[in-house]
Amino acid sequence: MKTKNRVIIALLIIGTLLFSVVQFVVVPHNNAKEQEYLAAQVEPTTHDLSRILPYKNRYIGNSSNTINLFYNLPLAEHGVKFQIFSQTLALEIDYQVSAQKIGGEKVHKALIYNSVAAFSLIDNLKKITYVFSDTSYEVTRTNIESVFGKNPSSLLAKEKWKTAVQHELENRDFVNQCMRTAILEKK
Q1: Backbone phi, psi, residue 184, to 5°
Q2: I want to staple 69 with a disulfide (CB 3.0 to 4.6 A). Which of 53, 55, 97, 156 is the partner?
Q3: If DSSP codes are grouped into helix, strand and coil, which group holds residue 30?
Q4: Could you count the other beta carbons within 10 Å of the beta carbon of residue 19?
Q5: 102 and 170 assigned to the same domain
Q6: Host domain of residue 134
Q7: Which residues of 80-112 are buried (b: 16+ CB within 10 A; e: fewer)?
Q8: How many structural domains is the chain composed of?
């Protein structure tokens, strides 16, 4: 009987120790990694392409797909409303904040990134209008193709995306050139 009680007590102690390790070491570590990953998703240069690939679609008319795509792109954390114009194959994204509050360079990088992502993943999308409380921007597929090539969906391989899109966004001259030629401010 003594041996049986010792085994039970030893198992109870081991179970308590293992539970404590999981609760106080493993779970917080996993939560920290998840928070770090989510923080990286709001920056175009660190955004995970695989997060948006499931939203690839041939048609803009698949509204839940289109909306979910933009909910998983940078700037979505500022609140987003959508309007899809199926007849003209256009999309209007209304951010519930001023571009000035976010910051010019951050907005410009995100608009370039989001535009390339949208035109790469939605085959028949022709135009996007981004509306902020203080300004708006307009971009067309033709403008993005003039910067990134005739077939934006060819960029969807992970390494190519990093090289052709994300690394380019770290170049201030490239961002400024895109904002002058591809994404036009409408005010």
Answers
A1: -105, 130
A2: 55
A3: helix
A4: 10
A5: yes
A6: 49-185
A7: beeebeeeebbbbbebebebeebeeeebbbbbb
A8: 2
CA pair distance 90, 83, nearest whole angstrom: 9
**How many helical (H) and strand (E) elements, i.e. helices and strands, does the chain have?**
8, 5
Place of tokens 């792109």: 73
Counting every residue written for the chain, the total comes to 187
Q: What is the pLDDT along the chain (187 residues), one digit of tens a residue?
A: 688 888 888 888 888 888 877 787 777 667 666 666 565 677 899 999 998 999 999 988 888 889 999 999 999 998 899 999 989 999 999 998 999 999 889 999 999 999 999 999 999 999 999 999 999 999 999 999 999 988 888 899 889 999 999 999 999 999 999 999 888 888 6
